[in-house]
Structure formats: C-alpha cells, structure tokens
User: What shape does this take?
Amino acid sequence: MNLDSKLEKIKGVGVKASQQFAISGIETVSDLINFLPRAYEDFSVITPILGVKPGKVTIKARCEKITTRPVRRGLRITTATLADKNGKLQAVWFNQPYRETQLKTGKEFYFSGVFEFNYNRYQLTNPSAELVSDMPVQTDRILPIYRSIKGLKSTLVRKILSELKPLIIMLPETLPEKIVASEKLVSRSDAVLTMHFPNKIEQVSKAKERLAFEELFQLLLASQLNRMENAKLKGWHIPFNLKVVSNFVTKLPFKLTTAQRIAAWEIIQDMERKTPMNRLLQGDVGSGKTVVAGLVACQVAHFGYQTAIMAPTELLANQHAETLSKLLRPLGVSVGLLTGNVKGTSRKTLYNQIVNGKVDVVVGTHALIQETVKFHKLGFVVIDEQHRFGVEQRQQLLKKSELMPHMLAMTATPIPRSLMLTVYGELDISILNELPAGRKPIITKIWSPNSRAQMYTAMDKEISAGRQAYIICSLIEDNPENEIKSVKLEFTKLQNSIFKHRRIGLLHGKLKSDEKDAVMREFSDGKLDILVSTTVVEVGVDVANATVMLIENADRFGLSQLHQLRGRVGRSEQQSYCYLVTSTSAKPTKRLQEIEKSNDGFHLAEVDLELRGPGEIYGRSQHGVLDLQIATLADTKLIARAQRQAKVFVQSGENLLQYKQLAAEVRYYQRLTTLN
Ligand code: ADP
Ligand code: MG
Assistant: This one.
C-alpha cells in the first residue's frame, strides 16, 4: 500500500464505506491522511462525579436512566442520570433523541461537556459521549474529532488512520529543509502524526503552525512567481504627456487631492514601462477613484489606445459613462456605453465603433466581456469595485488585446493587510488615503424603531434645507412571515403619511433598466427628495446633494455593506448623516456599534475579517484560494514569516521543480490567483 492507493485496499474498509468517503472527496490513502481533525476532545483528565465543579468537565460513567420528552414543537429534551462508583449527576441533551439508543446499552462512556446551572439545577449540558472501549490507547485519551461524513462514524476514521500510522511516519518532507530548520518547524510527518494522534494537547499548536506555514508559503510563493512571470510579459508602451494631463487637470471643477495625484502618477509611470501594469487602486468610499481612471484614460486615448471600464451594475456603468463623458468629450475623447440595455441597431453600431477605434473609452457592465465585443487597440482595462468580479471574468477581458493591456482594479472595500499580502501579493497598490478637501465626517446614529418619529423629523429638516435622502430596505415586497421592511410598502406608507409633502421615488432590482435609469436620473437631478431603494445603490452611486442615509433593519446587513451604503452620502461639503434603524429595541449588535463609532473603512474591514472570516467577505467562488485548511488570514505574524521565506526562496534562484509536491501545490495556487 502507498499514498496513492484507493481506500478500499485498506483492511476493514468496505465498498460502502469507501463510497461514503468518496462523496466527501476522500478517495486515496493520501486524501485520508490529509483529512485533519477539526477539533479535539480532551479526555485525559477525568473528574470523579463527586469532584465535579461548574465549567468544562469530563467524567467516566454509565447511564442509569434516560428519557426523552417533547417540550414544544421543534424541541425535545433528553435527560439522563449518569453514575460512577461514588456519585451521580444529571445530563441533558437538546434534540438528540438518539442518545437513548446509544446510552441504554449500559456500557461505560466518557462524557465531556459543560457543567452549568440551568433550569433550576446544575447539570451537564449537551455532553459528547465516547465509548471507553472505543478509545484508542495511543492517544492518551485526547480524541481527534473529524468533520462528520454521512454514514461513517468518527471511530471508523480513527481506526483506519491508526492502520495508516506506518505510512504517516514515513511521509516525506515537502518544504525545503533549510526553511524547516530556520523557521524551527516540525517535520511534515511529525506534524501530521500529531494532528491525528496527539499525546498532549499542547503539541497540536506546533503541528498546526507547521501545516499552516506550509499553506501560506505555497500561496505566497505562487504570488511571487506570478509577479515574476508578469514581469516577463510585453505590454503597450504609453509615454507620459504633460500637456494632455495638465489640460485635463485644469479643466476639472475641483483640485485633485495629493493622494489622487500620486496615484495617477504611479499609474502613468507603470504605462511607460515595457511590462503590463497590474495595479490595485484602493480608496475608501468617496475618495475620488473615478476621476483618476478618467485622467489616465485621457492620456491613453491621446496615444490612440482604447480604454475599457467595467462596472458591476448597470446603474453604475450609466453613471460612470455620464461622469466621464462630461470630463472627456470637451477634450476630444469619445465615450461609449455598453450594457445589456443597449440593443438592436444601436448595439451593432457601437460594436462597429469599438472595433474600428471610433470610441476611445468604453464603459460597460460584464456585457463588455462577451465574445462579440472586439476592440481596435485595447490598451487599458479598468475594473471598478473589482472584488465583485471573479478571476475568470478579468482574464476574458484581458484576452481582447494583442498585447496584454494595462490593468487597474479599483476597490472601495479596504483590504486588510494580511489579505493584501496573500491574495493580492502580485499586485502593485496605490492608495487614496484622503478624502477631497472640506468633507465632514458622516454622523452615524443607531435608532431604535420606537424613536422613528424623532428620526423622521431630523430627516425632514435636512430636506427642508434642500438636501436629499436615501431610505434603504432589504426586501422588495413584504413577506407576511417576518417584520422586515420592504421598499414597496415603505414607499406607499411614507408617501401617504409622514412624507406626504415630499417627492419620493422607488428603486429596486426588479424594475426594467430604463425605469431604473429614469428614477436614478430624477434623484440625481434633484427632482426627488427621498429615494426608497433596495441595496441596488450600494456601490458607486454618486449624488453629492444627498446627505441622509437611512437604513432599515440595519442589523441584517454586513459591516462592509453598511459602510458602502453609508458612503453614498458625505460626498460634498455638507454635513451628512447615516441613520441605522434596528429591527427591535433590543441592544444593538457589535457590528452596528462598530459602524456607529468609526468612519474608517480600514478599521471596519479588520473588524469584519475577525467577525466573519475572509471567505464570507470576499466570496468563496471568487477566491477559492481563501479556502485555506489550517492557516487563517488573521495570523499576520505567520503570514509575514512565510512571506519572508518565499522572497528568500525566489531570490536564491533555487529550482522549485526539485520539490515535487511543493511545485504542484504552487502551480495550483498560481492558476487560481493569476490575472493573466
Ligand atoms: P469613489 O472613490 O467612491 O468611487 P467617486 O469617484 O465617485 O468616489 O468620487 C466621489 C465624488 O467626489 C464625485 O462626485 C467626484 O466628482 C468628487 N471628487 C473627486 N475628486 C475630488 C476632489 N479632488 N475634490 C472635490 N471633489 C472630488
Ligand atoms: Mg466608485
């Protein structure tokens, strides 16, 4: 037997069991060895029942009596009396009726759980139960707990793994020895062995460190190699032209911020090089990213190259097209708009203009990446709110050019440093760390639904002063099963009562494109006082005169989403307000408190990463890369160590191919994260 052997080759694994394993993607011996425990249950310290104190505890006992009774719909309580030589205590399980069959056998079990005061008495709540006779001797009673696989017991997994122990001991080292030594890591075989058969719980952290380091090292090495490969590509050479740029800048209705100047300069310099640019422009909501892209597009057009600007929503594409037309047309640069809403002959005409080079700047949604769209000379690709796009979409867009076009991804979602190093390691980054002059920090306030009247009064005062307001509800239609607000009902209600005297608009994703456009235009032209909308306005929408953002059922939204929504106001020198209305008058969640306290997108992103983890924030499908098994991106120290070693490795010029397994993993990550 070897690592590639099928599982059914192992003694005691039947056809049925191996099929169950296969469903979870475990087919070979190696897959199973790498199927690491998700937790441990420490049965090494056993307390006699008479000595049990409140808190986490493990006892060794038999079940004397056990009954299950339904309490109400959806809740069944199982209570048992557990006894050892000298004492007895009560245990309770919620909705685990199978405990009866499991424990009625009268055999001896280890029970591990929390002993606490509940329902007027002390009891052991939801303890796990493991047959004493099942306990593998060699683990010193620290029991690895595996992710459950349907139809298979954890005990079977443990048993098979103990059969594989000789193979685990022989596992070859996958990292370069030099790195293992200088980082003082345990060997791969020791690490895997400890994960499955820990002697002491303290050893597990050393084993995890080693495996997490390896994961991060692979990821970071992949991104370094991608960067090197990028550097070998040939891109369009677009020289800096002072006259074009200063002409653009002097025609602007405002002065660029220093951060905008620096970012534009960095981008322009990248384009003078022979390699294609690969840059991320990161700036908090309202920091003025669009105009930076416009400036560069202007100078790109001057040299006869086209720019494609891709936005995540139609609404945003329309707005960008409008903004950029205003800035660029007077300078002789033509702007086209391509969305799903451009149809028939006008679409054909636009296609022709794009392929003939008659349009310099094409703004659009993902309609831009369709096969039918051909460019004359695509030199510059801008992707707005890039975290919304998958790697594949970017690749398709980049394919539309003879040489690799320069790429700029723009995002308002601040990326925590740890993510930046790992996932975005191959990108150069420009940061807009200041807002245009004269902006006042938005005042954020949590309102309980009881104080609605007071809040509306505050809002009405703003409208009387000539300002506008957004009201965000998460649903389109009311759902009788919950109390969550919907735009349709809220719109009707407000129009017929408290805001009878105001002009109110309704916006949501189910409207037709031109209806959406019309409402949005009315709002931005100041013909509406209030826009009742779903989150379709979440990203990018720019109406400077709006100063109130009211979010209903605010507790239902994520932190980044709230920050983005709030960013729709505070876009002028006027004082702006964000009102977060909670669903109930209960104490607001930590998320809401954080957002009330801070306007700093970076800080909020860090908090969000802590609260929810990266997969949740950035979306699994887009970043399969974040499906790390052991490492967490919150571990910035380990990331820094892995980053340093990856750099040293690349600079040493050592041949990666001599580390076969490492090379394979790195290739995998490279494909996953590369932009070209
Ligand atoms: P974001 O970075 O969120 O995409 P936008 O590009 O939409 O921000 O810009 C926000 C608003 O600020 C726009 O109305 C834009 O015209 C304006 N703006 C951009 N730069 C400046 C500046 N330097 N001074 C004043 N206003 C600016
Ligand atoms: Mg924007």
